[in-house]
Amino acid sequence: MVNRMELNPEKSPEAAFGARLRSAREVRGWTQEELGERTGYTGQHISAVETGRKPPTLRFSRSTDVVFGVVGTAESFERAWREIKHNSLLEGFPEYVKYEGRAAEIRLFDIGIIPGLLQTPEYARVLADSAVRRGVITDEQAAARVSFLAERQAALTRPRPPMVLVVMDESCIRRRVGGDEVMGAQLDRLLEFAELPNTVLQIAPFDIGERRPFNYLTYFLTLPDLSVIAYAESQIRGHLEREAPAVLPLLTAYHQLQAEALSQAASVTLINEARKGTP
């Protein structure tokens, strides 16, 4: 007889998700392999999610909802997945992400850290692990955060991808994260990003001085109806702004920042210079 691992749904949101998944499966008399066949995953994958060894993904949650017939209900596994994601994200950011996936144009400004949509998995993992060591999030939340980022990045490769315009403070490419190997691969990723047909990448150099209008992460989304949403983030919370009187001055400041920043060609040269000395 195969040993059946006891689950503790109180341990974490991921554990609660796994316990619910096992309960729903067993009520129907299905084995892990049978549920795997219905959802397009292996029995080993089902086991890993049930026991909390692997965090659920959006695709997995949606497939599970279809199989169990709970799409759009209070019992939806997608809803549980979103609650897991929200537990490890700043206030306001989950709401922003709901719009990001359908934006026609994305404008980003970041300081100190490469914007998430441009991060390599290794760079993102280093940041998540650092948050774990500081006691900010758990190991499970770190894994969920990295997985969530990969799903956000997938939106950039949809059939009609958004236009993505990025201005990064020079500190983003000068600050070494994860050592030379990780940082070298990250800078390579930036160079690849700059070559895409739907992107513009600019660096705001240190000598821009007081002409830099933002001192914090600031994002803008242009939605299909041409409305614009602004998102700004401090150390402890994020704020989403949809009202035009508040958004338009911020968008004007972003346009001024683009004018002050280096051209994409000059930015690529600066990134290549920063790349020297890394493997």
Q: Uncertain regions: pLDDT < 50 for 5+ in a row?
A: none
Q: Which overall shape is indicated by the principal axes computed on the Cα atoms?
A: globular
Largest sheet: 6 strands, mixed
Q: Return Rg in Å.
A: 21 Å
Number of strands: 6
- Given this structure, which CATH class of the largest domain is correct? Alpha Beta
**Largest sheet, spatial ordering of strands:** 3-2-1-4-5-6
Beta-strand content: 5-15%
The rounded distance between the terminal residues' Cα atoms is 51 Å
Specify the structural class: alpha/beta
Total domains = 2
In percent, how helical is the residue content?
40-55%
Number of helices: 12
Element-level helix/strand string: HHHHHHEHHEHHEEEEHH
The CATH homologous superfamily of the largest domain? Endonuclease Chain A
- The CATH architecture term of the largest domain is 2-Layer Sandwich
Tell me, rounded to a whole number, the average pLDDT: 89
CATH fold type of the largest domain: Endonuclease, Chain A
In short:
With 279 residues, this protein is an alpha/beta fold.
Characterize the structure shown.
This protein has helices at 13-27, 32-39, 43-50, 58-68, 77-87, 93-100, 121-133, 139-154, 171-174, 179-194, 244-260, 264-275, and strands at 105-110, 163-169, 199-204, 217-222, 228-233, 238-241. The chain has a six-stranded mixed beta sheet with strand order 3-2-1-4-5-6, sandwiched between helices. α4 runs antiparallel to α5, α7 packs antiparallel against α8 (139-154) and α10 runs antiparallel to α12. The protein has two domains: 13-86, 434 Repressor (Amino-terminal Domain) (Orthogonal Bundle); 91-118 and 155-275, Endonuclease, Chain A, CATH 3.30.870. It is an alpha/beta fold and 279 residues long. It starts with 12 loop residues before the first helix and ends with a helix.
